Amino acid sequence: MRHAIAMLVIVTLLAACATTTSSTGRTQYVGAVSQEQLNQLGAQAFVDAKRKGPLSTNAGQNAYVRCVVDALVRQLPANQRSMAWESAVFAEKEPNAYALPGGKVGINTGLFGVAKNQDQLAAVVAHEIGHVIERHHDERITRQMGASGAVQLLGALAGDYGQLATQGGGMLAQTGFLLPGSRAQESEADVVGQRLMAQAGFDPRAAVALWQNMMAAGGGRPPQWLSTHPDPQNRIAELQARANQLVPAYEQARAGGRRPNCG
Questions:
Q1: Residue 35 phi, psi (nearest 5)
Q2: What is the count of structural domains for the chain?
Q3: Which sequence positions are flagged as catalytic?
Q4: pLDDT value, residue 145
């Protein structure tokens, strides 16, 4: 009986889904959960991640990340800028980062070894913010609603966060928030993120250098968390081409006083 009810709820939710278009013109299938519920999931996932830690207590690192995040967020539309944006730095060696619905950004200290200045760090953060503002998490959850994890996801939406965490490794994993995005999503986050960093006054050419650093650190292979990105050499070429196109926007931002000084 419980299974039948759950399936009925899933069918009802899927019926409420809608087709929309991203800022790059890509068709998206979204709407299995409301934006409010999505933000709640993101916020709880972030709480879980910080509880598990380990968090960096380095004040300089935390201020550095917060400065970059704030500079990027200031360039978002008002409805996205008004989210409760916050960041956390995790004392983890893997060069990783993520952003969650509701405006939550996590950065591993290992990323500082490959993102060697504020512009390169902004390239990573802007890419991750791109996933949030282009509703990629909404897309992932909408896909999942018809899958075997749907009942657990519905439990999360009902507020049963503790049980969900014990059953499957935590909210971040269970909701798919940290699973690799599709190649289309990753490419779109590259486009949106590079545009955002230029508008914020970060050099869009730094995205090319960042990827080259990532490849060098991985012995010529991309890190696992970027495994669904386009072919590395093609991606570098695309980043370079867009950087050249975005230099005027970057220079205009700098001329207009948007000159981040994060460290």
A1: -60, -35
A2: 1
A3: 128
A4: 67
Can you say how many angstroms the Cα of residue 172 is from the centroid of all Cα atoms in its chain?
12
Widest distance between CA atoms in the chain: 64
Q: DSSP per residue over 100-158, as a string?
A: ETTTEEEEEGGGGGT--SHHHHHHHHHHHHHHHHTTHHHHHHHHHTTSTTHHHHHHHHT
DSSP structure class, residue 89: E
Nearest to 133, CA basis, from 88, 67, 89, 199: 199
CA distances from 56 to 14, 60, 61, 207, 259 (A): 40, 10, 8, 25, 27
SS3 203: coil
Check residue 216 and give its pLDDT: 83
Classify residue 261: in a domain, yes or no.
Answer: no
> How far, in Å, CA of 91 to CA of 69, rounded?
18
Q: Could you state, in chain order, the average pLDDT of each consecutive group of 10 residues for the chain (263 residues)?
A: 48 59 71 84 92 96 98 96 95 93 96 97 96 86 61 44 34 48 82 97 97 77 51 83 97 98 92
Radius of gyration in angstroms for the set of CA atoms belonging to the chain, rounded to a whole number: 18
Phi, psi of 234 (to 5 degrees): -65, -40
Short-list 72, 111, 114, CA closest to 93:
111
Looking at residue 33, the DSSP 8-state letter turns out to be: S
**Which residues contact residue 90 at a Cβ distance below 8 angstroms, ignoring those fewer than 6 apart?**
49, 53, 54, 55, 56, 106, 107, 108, 109
Q: What pLDDT does residue 235 have?
A: 82
Residue 262 lies in a domain: no
Is 25 a domain residue? yes
Whether residue 118 is contained in a domain is answered as yes
Determine the pLDDT at residue 174. Answer: 45
